[in-house]
Structures are given as structure tokens and as C-alpha cells.
Write a structure and sequence with these properties.
heterodimer; A: about 210 residues; mainly alpha; Cytochrome Bc1 Complex, Chain D, domain 2; B: about 500 residues; 13-stranded parallel sheet; 34 strands
Chain lengths: ~210, ~500
């Protein structure tokens, strides 16, 4: 019963995606179908499995949208939310221009920081983050376009944990054309335990917040 | 953030200290030892083969002041306006290159044996190597029996003097200022002397002895740096008679996890002035040294058989001596092949005063857990340290030393040096040149699974997962991609074959 209830907003999302507003000329209009899941400010919605995307690097967003379109992401049977996003992309982002416009619009949105911080061993999280993640994602999880690494600060814990598992378990980052994804998959297999992942996420959640 | 992490360490110390105290039934009796008498520490080095007798002679008579062998007879001069590097290129192995006072803007690579670069000092004027914050390194040597003396080095971004697998080196009487991450950095060398240098303004270690053996560090002044003198993944090192002041941490003996050589064993810190090392930590955030609490006189982390004797350790706001393990250290990731504990630390007589005066509540709690009050702490131990000992413990304010035994020796007078007569060059099989280049060059900044200076090797492996040629090309001409990491220096002095072998070697590493 619960499962059906959380699917309801997704149907709404799909309906929006199929509406005529998708084909508006500017990025804001093209983003409209995305609002139902990702929020009007791109702040994300944990309950819907939609990550915060506001202020995310345009090249990263563009690359992921292309991956969804091409079936390089969201095609694995274990990636339910990815499959939804892939379906939405197939409907709404039918050409490169649409992808580029939406990515640019998303990147220009003010960054959000609404995910509830999770608790963990911050010392362990700090050590592991700097030892395994920070060299690409930045010392403050701010992302680094030069290394194709997205911003992690501001992402909710459920999304981070899910994507990390996908990389580690061969759900994401396996396509030969997804080189950054393969790089991340290789690193994901080096984190020793789930507890360590929790600690890293706790550290990430301390980044970009007022201290 | 740093304060919070330090709290974590100290909270652990509270628990540990409390356990140590409450686990003891009675306070230990005071045992008073005289360091002017009693047995000497035997040391942990036993020379073998041809060096055994010579080493014994050196150790007992203190005659070994040089390790580079007889001075070459071929001498050339470099004058202001000329190139030191050009002179090195033209010189046959076995040449003294005298450098006249003047200013030289260059990086000097020495890959031949028996080269000596000797600055000529005229009425206080020296030969100045000025990197102008454009060049990475002043002196890079890989040759054996190398000597560098009397230079002034300033304004480099990476290293003042760096050794890359050269044996029998002498680095003496140089003034090194504001020159990147390491002032003097012999890496992967055996049998070396670092003495009478003045080093300051270094963003990592003023003097960094890395993965080396049989080293003598004496009579240096190091200050205004993050780490004063750091002995890391080395064996048989004596650090004595140095003046170490106003760094973040003064003297450090580490095992840094993730380096290819896994141990630090047999280090003697003796007769040093370690004073007022309270400098704000300006190490790159997330790097190993950025975890050093400001106000640390000495720090022993996972190093074994470290002897601390005869030092004046004063005016450190955090503590005079911190002994810890990998588990409690900041910015450290575990290495399954490294013993994480500081085993057999030996604390002999030292003069300690005015340490731990900026006491935060957690430190006070550590003291209270051992029924000690007051407003100071000289020695803190956190994490296991089996087999350790101390003499005259009653003289110091300590925490966590409850299981330290009384040492059965009181001094190190029986060991004058770990230096040897000249040792043979490191044997390098052409098939191993990629491995040796990694050991001698890359591991100065990169460790396998953590952040030292550059990104971890694991990350590099992922970024170039099926493209070793891409890595080989990158190291020849790096492009800065990380705003919070120092710029990587070009390694274009390595030939293309060595670079690709190096890249393949890094690709295949698993620790």
C-alpha cells in the first residue's frame, strides 16, 4: 500500500512530462516537467527519489541526461528510480538542444541545502572523505568540473547511499562510454564498510552549511 | 572542524585515561633514575658485512663526519649570470661545482654520482637560488655521494632540496626560505647527513626524512613551518642538537599509511631545543600535516622504538609530547600492512615546562581521570603503545602513561651515529625503473589511499583506469585541476620510457 502511495506523485510527474510545455524554447520552460519530482527550485525530493540538482555543474547534468537517453543509466533492473528518470527523459528531452537548455538552467539555479544532516563519526568521515573522495569531489564536496565530479554537498543521504551502492554493485558506471562513472565505480569498491559510508555522508552533510 | 576533530581524539583520551587509571590498584612508586649514570640504550641497528667494523668504529669514536667519500679533484666555477645546471650537464661524475655569490633562477637536476655543489660565501653574500614562485624545485638529485652546501634557496613552490634514491648524501649549511612543501627532503636514501641548515616558511615539513635509512639530522634551525623535522617511514635516524621553534609541530616520527615502505623504527630525538611550536597550521586542508594540532612539541604516530632524551621541550599550548596511533589521528586512513601503534616508545630525561597551558576542557578531563590537576600537560598518550617505558615519570604531567614501564637504561650515550662509511648505490634493474621512479619521486607526495600532498594513488588509478599513456603524458606536463591541492611539478626530466613504466607501475599498485 505504501508503495502505491509513493508512486502517485510520479504519475503526476509523468503527466507533466508529457504535456506540451516540454517543448518551450527556453530552459525554464523545459524544466517545468521536472518540477514535480525535483522541486521548483531544483531542491530535490527524497520521498520521490529525486536528488537536489540546483547549481549542479551543467556538464555533469548534461552528461547524465544523455546517459539516461542512451540507456547507459537507468537501464539496470535494480535502478527503479533511474528507470523512471530514463522514461521521463525519453519523453521530454528528445534532442541535444533540449538537454543542453535544461542542464544550463539547472546549473544556474541557486544551490540548495535542505537535506537533513545525518549523524556519524565525523573524524572517520573526514579521514575517509579526504582519502578517497575529496581529490575529485573537492575538499568541501563542492564538485570539480575539471574532473567530471559532481557537487555532493546538498544531496540527501538516501540518494547518496543509493547511488554509491549502484556504483559499487555494478548498477551504474559500467558502460564503456561512461568513463567518469567507471572511475567512480572503481573508487566505490574501495570503501570498506556501510558504516564508513554513513560516516562519509555525515561529513558531506557538514559541508556547505553555516558552522 | 579541526577543533571538533581534536575533541574526538581527546574524548578518546579521556576514556583511555580513565580506563588506565581505574584499572590500576595503586599509584606507582616513584622511581628516580640518574641519566648521568646507568645503562645506555643499545639501539636497533646492527651493521652487516663490510660495514660492521667501520660502523662500530664510527659509533664509538664519533669520527664519521662525512659519508660522500673522498672529495673530487675536478673543480669548476659558476659565476653570477651563468647556469648551475649547465655546469652540472657539462661536468663528469666526480666534480666540485663552486657557485659564486649571485642570483640564479633555475632548477638544478643532478643524476650523476660524486657531484658537489658548493656555494662560495663572500662576506656573507651567498649564491641564491630564487624560484620566484614560478619554479617548483631548486635542487633535485638522484646521484649518489651528492653534497650541497652554502646555498640560499628561496621562493620555490615545491622543494628546496629533494633527493630521489641517492645514497651517501650531505646537505649542509644552506638557508632555505619560503620554498613550498618541503625544505629539505631526502627520499629513499641511505646514509645521509642533514646539518647546519636554516629552514623556514615551509607548508609541510621544513626537513622531511622520507623512507630512508641511517640518517643524521643535527644542528639545524627550523621555524615558521607546519612541521619542523619529520621522520617518516624510516629506520635508524638520529635527530639531535636542532633548534626547532614556532612551527605547528616540532619533531615528528610517523608511519604514514599508504606509502610503499611500511615502518618507522629506531629514531632518536635527543638534545634538541623544541620551543614554542604554536604556529597556526597552514597545511593544505585534508592533508596529513593539517591534522597536527598547533602547539605540539613532539608527535609520535605509529613509529616504533622512538627514544626521546635530553630535549628542552617548552611552551607548547597543546602538549609537549603526543604519542598516538593511526586510529586516533586526523586525516589518516588505515593501511592494513602498517602496524598502527607506536610500539616501544622510550622517554628518558627531558626538560619540559610550560606545555599544555591552553587547556581545553577535554584535556583537563584526561588529567582529572588520573586524579591529576594543575594547568599543564607534558605528555599525552592515546591508543596502544605496547612495550613503552619512561624514566623519572614523576617529573612530568602525563596522561595515558599508566602502563609505561620503567626503562632499564637511562641514556643513549652508547650510540653516537647510525651513519656508515659510503654504501653502494641502490641497485636499479632497468626492468624496475618505473617502480624506482615511483618510490623515489611520486611517493614523496602521493600515498596509496590517503591524502598527503597530492591525490591518492587509488584515485589516480581510477582516473586513468585504462589509460596509462594518459598518465605518462600528464606527469610530463601537469595541468592544475584542484584548487585545494598544490600544483604538481612537471616530471618532464624523466624520459618517455620511464614515464610509461612509472604509469604502469602506479596502475598495478595495490597498497
Amino acid at each position: 500500500m505504501m508503495g502505491f502511495r509513493w508512486l502517485q506523485p510520479l504519475f503526476g510527474c509523468a503527466l507533466l512530462l508529457s504535456s506540451g510545455t516540454v517543448w518551450a524554447a527556453d530552459g525554464k520552460a523545459r524544466f517545468t516537467p521536472c518540477v514535480a519530482c525535483h522541486g521548483s527550485q531544483g531542491e530535490g525530493n527524497t520521498a520521490l527519489g529525486a536528488p537536489a540538482i540546483a547549481g549542479q555543474d551543467a556538464a555533469y547534468v548534461q552528461r547524465q541526461l544523455q546517459h539516461f537517453r542512451a540507456g547507459r543509466r537507468g537501464a539496470h533492473q535494480s535502478d527503479t528510480f533511474g528507470a523512471q528518470m530514463r522514461a521521463a527523459g525519453a519523453t521530454t528531452l528528445k534532442d541535444d538542444a533540449a538537454v543542453t537548455a535544461v542542464a544550463a538552467y539547472v546549473a544556474a539555479l541557486p544551490k540548495t541545502q535542505r537535506a537533513a544532516p545525518v549523524k556519524g563519526d565525523l573524524r572517520n568521515g573526514n579521514n575517509l572523505y579526504h582519502g578517497k573522495c575529496g581529490a575529485c569531489h573537492g575538499g568541501h564536496a563542492e564538485g570539480n568540473p575539471a574532473l567530471n565530479a559532481p557537487r555532493l554537498a546538498g544531496l540527501d543521504a538516501v540518494y547518496i547511499r543509493r547511488q554509491f551502492s549502484h556504483f559499487r554493485d555494478g548498477v551504474r558506471g559500467t558502460d564503456p562510454k561512461d568513463v567518469p562513472g567507471r572511475q567512480m565505480a572503481m573508487m566505490a569498491r574501495t570503501l570498506p564498510t556501510e558504516r564508513d559510508l554513513d560516516d562519509v555522508i555525515a561529513f558531506i552533510h557538514q559541508q556547505g552549511r553555516p558552522q | 572542524m579541526k577543533k571538533g576533530l581534536l575533541f574526538g581524539l581527546l574524548a578518546a583520551a579521556v576514556a583511555f585515561g580513565a580506563g588506565a587509571y581505574f584499572g590500576r590498584s595503586t599509584k606507582q612508586d616513584v622511581v628516580i633514575s640518574s641519566s648521568t649514570s646507568g645503562a645506555s640504550y643499545g639501539g636497533g641497528f646492527k651493521a652487516e658485512g663490510d660495514n660492521a667494523q667501520a660502523s662500530k668504529t664510527a659509533a664509538t669514536s664519533d669520527v664519521l663526519r662525512s659519508v660522500a667519500g673522498p672529495a673530487p679533484t675536478n673543480v669548476v666555477m659558476v659565476k653570477d649570470g651563468e647556469s648551475i645546471q649547465a655546469a652540472v650537464k657539462a661536468a663528469p661524475a666526480g666534480t666540485i661545482i663552486r657557485v659564486m655569490p649571485g642570483t640564479y633562477h633555475e632548477t638544478v637536476y643532478i643524476d650523476k654520482d660524486d657531484i658537489r655543489i658548493i656555494g662560495v660565501i663572500e662576506e656573507g653574500r651567498r649564491a641564491v637560488l630564487d624560484g620566484q614562485k614560478k619554479l617548483n624545485d631548486a635542487i633535485l638529485y638522484s646521484g649518489n655521494n651528492f653534497v650541497v652546501e652554502n646555498l640560499e634557496i628561496r621562493g620555490y613552490k615545491g622543494n628546496g632540496v629533494m633527493g630521489q634514491a641517492g645514497n651517501n648524501f650531505e646537505i649542509r649549511n644552506n638557508i632555505i626560505t619560503d620554498s613550498g612543501v618541503y625544505g629539505i627532503f631526502p627520499q629513499l636514501g641511505q646514509n645521509g647527513i642533514v646539518e647546519y641548515n636554516i629552514v623556514s616558511g615551509i607548508a609541510d615539513a621544513a626537513i622531511y626524512i622520507g623512507m630512508s635509512d641511517n640518517i643524521h639530522v643535527a644542528h639545524n634551525e627550523v621555524f615558521d613551518s607546519v612541521a619542523g623535522i619529520e621522520v617518516e617511514n624510516c629506520r635508524h635516524v638520529i635527530v639531535e642538537h636542532n633548534y626547532v621553534h614556532n612551527n605547528t609541530g616540532g619533531l615528528l616520527a610517523f608511519v604514514t599509511p599508504g606509502l610503499p615502505i611500511k615502518t618507522t623504527v629506531d629514531v632518536i630525538f635527543r638534545n634538541n631545543f623544541v620551543v614554542g611550536n604554536n604556529h597556526v597550521n597552514f597545511g593544505a586542508p585534508g592533508s596529513t600535516v593539517s591534522g597536527i594540532p598547533a602547539g605540539t612539541g613532539m608527535l609520535v604516530m605509529a613509529a616504533d622504538d622512538v627514544v626521546i632524551e635530553g630535549n628542552i621541550v617548552s611552551d607548547h599550548k597543546t602538549a609537549g609530547i603526543i604519542i598516538t596511533d593511526h586510529a586516533h589521528a586526523q586525516n589518516i586512513t588505515a593501511d592494513p600492512e602498517s602496524d598502527p601503534n607506536s610500539d616501544r616508545v622510550k622517554i628518558l630525561d627531558n626538560v619540559m615546562l610550560k606545555n599544555g597551558y591552553d587547556m581545553i576542557p577535554e584535556v583537563r578531563a584526561v588529567l582529572l581521570s588520573e586524579a591529576k590537576g594543575g594547568g599543564a600537560i607534558d605528555i599525552v598518550r592515546v591508543g596502544p603503545s605496547p612495550g613503552s617505558c619512561i624514566i623519572n615519570r614523576h617529573q612530568y604531567v602525563t596522561a595515558g602513561l599508566g602502563d609505561f614501564a620503567d626503562c632499564d637504561f637511562t641514556n643513549t650515550a652508547g650510540i653516537s651515529t647510525y651513519l656508515l662509511p659510503s654504501v653502494p648505490p641502490r641497485k636499479i634493474d632497468p626492468a624496475d625503473r618505473g617502480k624506482v621512479a615511483y618510490l623515489g619521486i611520486c611517493s614523496g607526495c602521493h600515498i596509496y589511499n590517503g591524502r598527503m600532498i597530492g591525490p591518492p594513488v587509488q584515485v589516480i588509478q581510477a582516473l586513468y583506469l585504462d589509460n596509462p599513456q594518459g598518465l605518462a603524458d600528464y606527469i610530463a606536463k601537469p595541468v592544475k585541476k584542484r584548487s585545494d591541492y598544490p600544483e604538481m611539478p612537471p616530471q618532464d626530466y624523466l624520459d618517455p620510457q620511464t614515464r610509461i613504466e612509472l604509469a604502469k607501475n602506479m596502475h598495478d599498485l595495490n597498497n
